[in-house]
Amino acid sequence: MSAATTPTPAATRPGVPAPARRWVQPVLVANLVVQIGIVVTGGLVRLTGSGLGCPTWPECVPGSYTPVVHQPQGVHKYIEFGNRTLTSVVGIVALAALVVVLLEVRRLHRPRRLVAVAALPLVGVVVQAVLGGITVLTHLNPATVAAHFLVSMGLVCASTYLVWRVGEPDGPTRPVVRSELVWTSRVLALLTGAVLLLGTLVTGSGPHSGDADAPARFGLDPRSMSWLHSDAVLLWFGVVAVLIVGLRLTSSGAVPRREAWITLAVGLAQGVIGYVQYLTGLPVVAVALHMLGASLLVVAVTRLLLSLRVRASLSSS
């Protein structure tokens, strides 16, 4: 075959990005995993009453960044310090994610917007460190604890987007579903945010304050807040059902239908855990699983929204 008729590899055709290096996706997935993991470990700090195991910040105790033997906090100091240490691990992985995306953007001449998105997890680590310090200094004020959790949910969302986006071409997007379903998905996103926010109000009114000796609470009725949270969840399920039926009745493709069913499955599991923890007096294990489920729900909803559109390659735009 002559040089004139030899096919040009996709990696060198103008406008078509070369395949990402094999280690890019694993690093981005690792970033997502540690973002979820720090949510669970942070929850365990609260659930074990270790929120003030290190009573100062950024030091653990005045004069020492690490726990000291004579601290009165006992085992709680090690639990809280362990969670602080894990924040460094999350920061290292977030930095690695930023570096691999930056290298790929330079190598493949991909949009610089990807670098801005990849910077969000690292910036989030700094924001979370500051919020964590404020939480300690305000003696676990439930508002700062709630903000701490909600920022983590935003970082899980951004990290999920990053994993999905890096595997896409760089051309313009177009929906693969009817406009009514696009708007329904946006309603689902808003409802997911509302469910998470109401969940923090339930938590901030319940028994697990993070410090059994001096609990700080919102002062709201836990049962009423739980019911309001439950009502929002039922509405969320209704919107998911509308999406599933709409995707089934239209030629939307297999990927959106798959992601919708996954979202429903995660939501059902999260709902079961929620009712179990409510009916059994909020045991630590159930609450921890519920926090993990909240993170997985954000992942599922983010993927569902992203599956409702495709991005063309630049060569075909």
Strand content: under 5%
Reported for the largest beta sheet, the result is: 2 strands, antiparallel
State the low-pLDDT regions, or none. Answer: 1-19
- Characterize the quaternary organization of these chains: single chain
- What string, H for helix and E for strand, traces the elements in order? HHHHEHHHHE
Major sheet strand order: 1-2
Cα distance spanning the termini: 30 Å
Query: Structural class, from secondary structure content?
Result: mainly alpha
- The Rg value, from CA coordinates, equals 22 Å
Q: State mean pLDDT (0 to 100 scale).
A: 85
Specify the overall morphology.
flat
Number of H/I helices: 8
Fraction of residues in helices?
Answer: 55-70%
Secondary structure: number of strands? 2
> Number of folding domains?
2
Can you offer a commentary on this structure?
Helices cover 66% and strands 2% of the residues. The chain contains 8 helices and 2 strands, in the order ααααβααααβ. Strands 1-2 form a two-stranded antiparallel ribbon. α2 runs antiparallel to α3. It is flat. The two termini are 30 Å apart. The N terminus is likely disordered. InterPro entries: COX15/CtaA_fam, COX15/CtaA_HemeA_synthase.
Layout of helices and strands:
Layout: H1 24-47, H2 76-108, H3 113-137, H4 142-166, E1 173-175, H5 179-203, H6 222-249, H7 254-279, H8 284-307, E2 309-311
Antiparallel strand pairs: 1-2
